[in-house]
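Quick check before the chapter quiz. The format below is the same one you will see on the exam, so make sure you can read both the input and the output lines.
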Amino acid sequence: MTVSTPAIPAAPQLPAMFREGTERHSRRVREDWDGRHMLHGRAPGPEAILVNGNDYLALARHPRITKAMTGALAAHGNDALMSGVFFHGSHPQLLLERDLADHMGAPSGILCQSGWAANTGLLQVLAGPGTPVYIDMLAHMSLWDGARISGATVHRFRHNDAAHLRRRVTDNGPGIILVDSIYSTDGSVCPLPDIADIAAETGSVLVVDESHSLGTHGDLGEGMTVELGLTGQVHFRTASLSKAFAARAGFIASCDQAFTGHFKMASHPAVFSSTLMPHDIACLAETLTIVRQDHWRRTRLRQVSARVREELTAAGLNLHDSASHIIALTGGSERQTMALRDNLEQRDVFGSVFCPPATPRTRSLVRLSLHTALTDPQAEHLIHTCLRALRPARRH
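Here is the expected output.
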């Protein structure tokens, strides 16, 4: 017996007033990028040096972590399709929240679906219409969106300029200060002690996004706030756990135990989206153990990062104040950045292109995310490749 497939009506056409963005993107690809997609370079081969991800401690394929995840999948499947607000008692997610909070020296912690959900959810709950919010110009877009969602009055301050921040707070009153510990665009490090002093002196709340320092900084990977001894001055720390922890989740370390219950009942991402799966929890629990145990991973990351930064800086390259495992190579225009990307990839170095909306149109770049697994020969090749790719551009 033949079963006929019913005819499916043609999809509707978007009205012209809603096609502007799509048409603008098509023109961008066709005219600005010569028909190529700016973010899609060549496929890496077996000799490729991959510095285009965020797996800073090289944990993404760790056998203990994958074993924990597959064990949880076999035992529980995807049996967690509900909001985390329903969990209570000794649920594994609540136990992990306590372990992560203890790790970061915080009274309480909240697991979220992503770093984006952590930041937007936190600002949506913490701020309100008219609340002064002071945000570093290079802070992650999720912090900007969270402030906008809350209806707060947003005051930007110059990147890493504590004096400018102080003037802003003096003019507009105490509020919420938003910074990253390490800025993902260029690898620059926040002058956190100065920012924390301003928050304390003005009675402001300080939120630090530790996405790129959790796991990599501190004796046991507790993050930059702990490393600097500032846990008593930072009210909230947030993190995407898709960086050094190589998982898909977000976390909020809170200064107030009571805030946790309030957040889970008030944050829209927490209330209206399903929470983490059992294999996510198993992955993070095992990762936390390894992060705390494997000191050598942080040591190696610091060594290889310092070497690359020092040699590139000594050769005259402008690394935009990077003091971390993130290095930005300025391309300039989008076409120039595509040419830089192609030049690097021809020599088997694969970074990440950053362009609008992540950067201004004339300041696109290629970001190198260094990691523990880089060997000395790979680091040497990366350094020489960057110098060969950028020296011709510096003569013009």
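If your answer matched, good. The domain at 36-57+295-394 is CATH 3.90.1150.10 (Aspartate Aminotransferase, domain 1).
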